[in-house]
Design a protein that fits this description.
Layout lengths: L2 E10 L2 E2 L10 E7 L2 E8 L3 E13 L4 E7 L6 E7 L5 E3 L16 E9 L2 E11 L3
């Protein structure tokens, strides 16, 4: 076990930081002197995820979708806020390319994307069941 030395140098993506800037999932390299960590170089890595759920809310201006999904650990419903970008790709039920405007409240969708910090951004959204 190592202790972090008082005054240890901490960098995240080549920017000076402190311990509170470190997050779970970052790739780190440590510089040690005896049993003390004197330097931490951290690199942010994206965490890929996928969610299947029901669309609860669509905010077209902010390009946000709120999904209701089942938490696989607790088997309880929870909501996930999904940010969409110009790079997000959409597919309709039949596999053809769609668009953000085709997503409606109560649609069943599969969203594939990644977290950066606590923000989930969609890479692709697949419409599985349309409510209309």
């Amino acid at each position: 076990m190592y202790e972090i030395a008082s005054g240890a140098e901490i960098e995240i993506d080549n920017h000076e930081s402190d311990l509170y800037g470190l997050r779970l999932g970052y790739h780190v390299e440590l510089e040690l002197e005896s049993n003390y960590i004197v330097k931490i170089d951290a690199e942010i890595r994206e965490r890929n995820d996928r969610f299947e759920g029901m669309v609860e809310y669509v905010h077209e201006d902010a390009e946000i979708i709120v999904l209701s999904v089942n938490n696989s650990n607790t088997n309880e419903k929870e909501t996930i806020t999904v940010v969409v970008t110009d790079d997000t790709v959409y597919y309709d039920e039949d596999g053809t390319r769609g668009s953000f405007r085709h997503i409606d409240k109560e649609d069943k969708v599969l969203v594939i994307g990644s977290y950066k910090d606590d923000i989930f951004t969609a890479k692709s959204i697949i419409l599985m069941e349309n409510n209309n």
